[in-house]
Fold this protein.
Amino acid sequence: MSWRRAILGGSLAAALSVGVPATAAAEFGPIELVSKSGREQAGAASEPAISADGRFVTFRATIGGRSAIFRRELAGGGMRLVAERVGAEAGGGPSISADGRYVAFTTAASLDPTADDPQPPAVAPKDSDVYVADMAHAPPAYEIASARDGCNPAASPVPCGLSYSSNDGSLAGVGIALSADGRRVAFVVNARSDLTGAAGGAETPPEQVALRDLATDSTILISTRRDPVTGMTEAPVEAGAVYDASGAALSADGTTVAWLGEHIDEQAPMLSDEAASVKALGSPYNEPLWRRVPSAADRPPTRRVVGGGDPIAPGCPRDGTLADPACQGPFNLFERIGDVAAQGWLSQGSAAPRLSADGELVALLGDPEERADVFLVDMKPGLSRREAMRQLTRWTNPAPELPLQSVFSNPAYAPFLAPIADLGISPDGRRIAYTTSRRFFPLAPPTLVSAQPAGLQSTELYQIDLGSETIERVTPGPEADVSLGGGASAPSYSADGRMLAFVSRAHNLVAGDANEGNDVFVVESTLPSPVGSSAVPAQPSRLVVRPRWRLATRAVSRPDGTVRVIASVPGAGTLRAKASAQLGPRLLARDVTAGRSRSRSARVLRLDLRLPPRLRAMARARAGLSASIRVSFAAPGREQLRDELPARFRVHRASEAERR
Amino acid sequence: MRRATVIAQLAIVLAIVAAAPGAPAAAAEWHSEQPTAAGIGVPVPLGPVGDIEFWAPNRGVLITAGNEGMPAGVYAYDGIGWHLYSTVCGGHDGRIVWTGPTEFWTVSDYATKQEGVEDERLEQRRTLCHFRDGQVVASHAEPFGTAETYLPMSAAACAGPSDCWFAGERLPGDPNVGAFHLHWDGASLTSIPSLTEAEPELSDPGRSVEDLVFFQGGLFESVRVDEGDQAPGETESSLIHRIEPSSAQPFVPLFPTYGPGASADTVFGGLRFTADGSELWALAGSDRPEGLTAFHYAGGGFVQIPLTQPDPPLLKEKDSVEGVAAEPGSDRVWVGLCHVDDFCSPTYGGRARLISIRGDGSVGPEVALPASSEELNNKGFAGPIACPAAGQCWMATSMGWLFHLGGSLPQDTDPAMHQLISSRPCDNSCRSIPPVGIPVDDSGELAAGVNPELPPIEKRPKPPKPARPIAFKVKQRVVDGTILQLSFTLRTRAHVQLLAKRGGRTVAKTPSLTMDRGRHRLRLRLDPKRWPTDLKFKVRAAGRRSGK
């Protein structure tokens, strides 16, 4: 269990900060409501996706009496209908190409009857398919993406659309399914289909990940089975490769697909005892999976993004087990508390991973520590999963003396441990937006530089800027304390992370928002300008992972009367903390307690400062003792780093010794 | 900060609502004509509109409860567009009645949160506002939960500035049976029957009032016949009363002439009145397949009009009448409908249904709003309707979306109707915060001879320093209705604590805080159910044992 908590927070932070000089936090412009026509606000707007060039936003909404997918041009305000519901069949999940020309979505409507497979008489209502709309035409031209390999819809005498044995059909993930050029679409086939066999057959099992290349009319099965001896095959995973229809993400360059997988041992290597443990579970087990798109010449392996075990980690022997430290992943994914829907990476709900434009960075929502947090994983080869993963948020337990389940169920503790609800990553991988009603983010860096919201339950949108190592609150904007009426969700970035689209039910983000429903908003932020000149040579011969020499600190008052100093240190050295307080009205401040801790590498250190008994009694009598904590970090041959923090020792009850 | 933000946002909303009257008018047909809000720059709903009334075709007001984006209050029409007229005196299902060119009354919600009221619906429609010449000249209300508390009102009618009637729910039966009525005589409001003294001689049947109308010198009220009503003297249910204020028994039951098969029992809901100066109509839903019950006032009585429906019929059994207005200069009455099966609730997802009924009883055609050609989402079911002139009608939907029959008119530029009213005089229901009692600082008196046992000091003692309070410039205000904010300046470092007491018991308090000299602020959240009657602000110099 101890290694479960041992997160190598610093290494990836350092890796990600290579070549990025120190920067200031971004400044956000006014939030703009975009889900509207010239005549009214949209009703029930949701699922926005912004184009990489920041010119277009596509979303679902009801406007002018039409429930449909729309595309809005941000500069001119022009709104175009992408695809409309047909009867009760809902379209959904739009993704948009970099220039906004193509929009991919899921619909049960047969938008191209010559290409869509005929409706089986026994299946009603119609199964869903994935389409791509070409907005260069008016009305848009539709091409089916959930189609059989090698079938050209324009030339084929028979429909190219996949044939399904149930109406689950195919599904494209919201905002993540389309490549930047709009020609590649990743989707999940949820029904038994003819994806890999003869037309009209049903030999392909359900819950498979596929990729359609519209330029070549090829459809590739991504979630193929792995043979322990020969490696990746072209056969589908018989028991299903995707967990809970959570969709699949495609990188903007179209080279990489990621999904929340199930039956992991059939797709990627697992440790022998790990695979046995998964099989012994009574509930489903999931983990995010990642794969470069295979070609005829190359069958790259499906890789685990994170895992309980890491059999391909450097140093892990071929027959390694979970007991071997070199084979351990960042978390033990088998120790869950209470009733959970699934074991593994995400025990509640489902969320597809998010990819940077080149697919190398994966942003994840996961709850390996029981409450959903944000993680970022570098998929560059050669890194162990523990080295590659960085945890960007972490919940804290405000009442460690209570059973965890009762802490989770107490809404008063939401500011400490509310789950992260949704996230998005900018294509350049620099920014990550997430939504939560949590208010405290003790991992610093990234450091929260915005004021905490005043409301306990408001779900706000935050942005992590990995360049400046900051967390900023995006909603509700500078004019209000909290989002009123509802929270944010579904963040989507333009290519450079400058434009951020999201959904919110809040009515105080924009004056006059009176539809009492969800709206799609866009906010523009400045790109932080580097402070000083870059120290990186123009053409570095080799990237060197070297952390920036700086100290980030934070102090948290704990219920047991101690103050915990959390410090992110840049390398090996000694961290010292000394608290001083003014004990009388006319007295000078004097040192009241001190502590120190050593680190062997860049990491997050925790140092608990405890008052001596006499001062504990004084603090209790005064309802707390305000102190100033001077923190220093010293390392041989390096500049000493210093910081100073305000803190308060809160002593709520006498210790056993004091009571005696 | 927050207050400043709200004011700033409201200012933006106001500016744009006033400047942007909505879509260009299309005269011949009903069309959307909705004010535009700033920020998002498109027309937005105004929230549930209780009533629309006009003094002239280019001078009208509506009352709304507002919504998340638009403030509750009163909006005015000037012939060009609608603008926010008053941010006070809004209300849920409010009513408006004009008494002069710049004078009208509203039935509104309480101005302040009432003590001990958890269900906010209990605070609705229990107060009156009197608007005149661009301001609220008076507000009338009694605190909730007293014997004199006004009951919710649903009807208002005036014969002039000094003769207005307001009526609503039936009385509890003790001390009087009847419906709640208020009469304004130009100087004061009187409850009829009295809320505190028995007046059995009035013989008001215990039924709730649905509507009131002055017509050709007579005052009429329609009542709902509901289970549990107390009308022991009635041999037959009377849906309409003529009110004769000077009579010993002022509520005179009228018995309309029903058509074949109809009776008071087949009327669904209370009757709604509409008059265009020469004609008076009364309409309600029906339990019969005809769908509506319509009466026409003629020859001193109400006579049912047989309705002729087209095929297929437009009216259905248990259609509910949500709004009604006679169009002057025609024999047409517009009726807003909602069927009970559609729940007539804010979640109603269909289009608003309007039908017209001619004087000869012919029904139709039906108008569904918004029209398909307008390319608008559905805006809720039909609500109040007003027709100030021939070819000029307005209808507000349940969401607060306005539809107009007719085109734009010459702009009414009366400054009294282009104010922004933001203050409402205090009435008997206003809740006040007791002043903070700042303790006397006796720190300067400690040197005085406190102990009489001590021997006299030969040396002439210095006169005691005048007591200077440690805390000064104490200001208090209530933020968001429930947070008491106290700002003060400390002359020296001190322990401070704010306590709110009610009946001697502490109902809220801040922790005892030690603060340095300078300006400070304390915030204390108050419970509306245990509103304090006394405040104590404890200030004690830090390091001293006394001096409270």
In short: Chain B touches chain A through 37 residues (CB under 8 Å).
